[in-house]
């Protein structure tokens, strides 16, 4: 572009003829709408613009809509999961080019800061979980992805797009925060509290390590039924408040080697503390908005470990291989399909999971 001859736009006149797109926009607690928004542009040389082909809704989007996530301000396009086609890349992007089929990580990683060098992408000093939170997200026709080289993953030809949408967030979350931190081992006894998409993702990926028993605990019989189909060896409906006694009976009063908390409330974290065997590991995944008690008076001599983690998505390439080789089939989590212009119906269905039996919904842009 010849800058010398480019006329300055008149300040009073609107000169923008930006191309528009459809996007799901957070409008403040309890409010969202499908809006026409300008298509995103490259703003840094490390950016890519991706045309979304498929995206989904996460429980975290529902948290945002409740007003639980103050970093996400009204006007934000939601969504941090998805696959698509690269439309254009900034001058510094070397790993991707226009036309490439890509998987988007829910976590943006600069690849260079102290945390990224430690593979703690979730704490990247200029990235982390910003997509659909601090910057516009994937529930739109197009999205701007910062640090494209280290935040996108190539999708090989012939791969199943829908299965891969599950790799943006829920599979790595269940695996990294639950299974890896919980040190699931061959022959061990595992309990997963919460059979939502995240708990079920932990259930699918725990089986890489051949634990002896996987006990799934939830309040929803439908989800427990799904858990059985996904490989749970036992399920417990904890509505009666007696899950603790049932687990102790099942394990000969010993408890479980790994207790994975996949709900995010006090009562389920307390249950994990009650059922953990000596030497065991409690792996918290749930996002806790309220105070939770830690019973050190019971646990100080039990040789246990407790971990917390924000998903880093460092295991996406490894999980990709397990999906390609059909070791796991994350497509099993998909219950509903919608077009982007019906995204409000998709939220309605996903938000009423007990009634609609929804797990993950696919939204086609
Ligand atoms: N650490 C991370 O990086 C990370 C990433 C993504 C999601 N999360 C969190 O993981 C948690 C699970 O996510 P999800 O999408 O599967 O949520 P979800 O709401 O779909 O599932 C939660 C499940 O817990 C069950 N449940 C509720 N109360 C219960 C109780 N008292 N006892 C037993 N089960 C109970 C519900 O029936 C539901 O099936 C959420 O807190 C989410 O915010 C954490
Ligand atoms: Zn999420
Ligand atoms: Zn970084």
H/E element sequence: EEEHEEHEHEHHEHEHEHEHEHEHEHHE
CA-CA gap between termini: 33 Å
Helix percent reads 25-40%
Bound molecules: nicotinamide-adenine-dinucleotide, zinc ion
The radius of gyration is 22 Å
User: How much of the residues is beta strand, in percent?
Assistant: 15-25%
The biggest sheet amounts to: 7 strands, mixed
Total beta strands: 15
- Per DSSP, the total helix count is 13
Q: What structural class should be given to the helix and strand makeup?
A: alpha/beta
Broad shape: globular
pLDDT averaged over residues: 94
Low-confidence stretches: 1-13
Question: If you had to describe this structure to a student in words, what would you say it looks like?
Answer:
- With 365 residues, this protein is α/β, with parallel strands linked by helices.
- It is 26% helix and 24% strand.
- The chain contains 13 helices and 15 strands.
- The protein has helices at residues 59-65, 114-117, 148-151, 161-165, 170-180, 197-206, 221-229, 243-250, 266-275, 296-299, 316-324, 343-351, 353-356, and strands at 20-26, 32-38, 48-56, 82-89, 101-104, 142-145, 152-154, 189-193, 213-218, 234-237, 256-261, 276-284, 305-307, 334-339, 360-364.
- Helix 5 (170-180) packs across helix 6.
- It starts with 19 loop residues before the first strand and ends with a strand.
- Bound molecules: nicotinamide-adenine-dinucleotide and zinc ion (2 copies).
- One zinc ion is lined by residues 58, 60, 80, 106, 169.
Walk me through the topology:
Layout lengths: L19 E7 L5 E7 L9 E9 L2 H7 L16 E8 L11 E4 L9 H4 L24 E4 L2 H4 E3 L6 H5 L4 H11 L8 E5 L3 H10 L6 E6 L2 H9 L4 E4 L5 H8 L5 E6 L4 H10 E9 L11 H4 L5 E3 L8 H9 L9 E6 L3 H9 L1 H4 L3 E5 L1
The structure holds nicotinamide-adenine-dinucleotide and zinc ion (2 copies).
The site of one zinc ion has 9 residues, from α2.
